[in-house]
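Thread: manganese (II) ion complex, take 2
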Amino acid sequence: MTEPFHDVVAPPAPTRIPVRGGGTFPVHRVYCVGRNFADHAREMGAAAPASKAERGTPVFFMKPADAVVTGPDVPYPSATAELHHEVELVVALGRDASAGVLPVESAPSLVFGYALGLDLTRRDLQAAAKAKGLPWDIAKGFDASAPVGTLVPAAAVEPLAPRTLTLDVNGRRRQSSTLDHLIWDVPEILHELSKLYALRAGDLVFMGTPAGVAALHPGDRCDARLDDVLALHCTIAPARV
Ligand code: MN
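Output below.
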């Protein structure tokens, strides 16, 4: 580009996530994994692999970076009568991957830290899209569809496998699983993603949800936890329009 240039609209500020211990994490891309817990795959009517050898390839989709929201109030979205929660571990990348496919063994070095997120879903629109073989974007990538809690550096959260992910809605347990039930673990997912995209510092990866997804309504309070190391608290607010 030749200098000087002038933007003809104001450039958008990046979405930023607060980091425990100080600083903020500017979001580049938001990747999401579908069907990464067997119990959730089954509750959605999909087959769950019987073994690692039968996993095939992961299901990926994306949300826009500005779908990430960190405030306590999350607006109920338009165009749905069935908003579902999916509590998920969120991986935050602190380094760019080298060119080419990322080896599984190298993947942990890219991870800055972890947060909890809700992969909010317009389930009615997703079911209609699945029935017609259409893309999931309007079901998954809407405004404020990705509430995320405070980011915590990796060393304070790992090892992940024995930790328990939970979601309470209005004080009642809706979802709970240890992370050793992930069909694809974090290094495996980063390896698979690197076959498809150039992974960059600032990327987030939503790792998929266990069983128990269900409807949310305005006024519902969501409290997600990963043991005592990660938390996300938010309330579904009335629609913006
Ligand atoms: Mn999900």
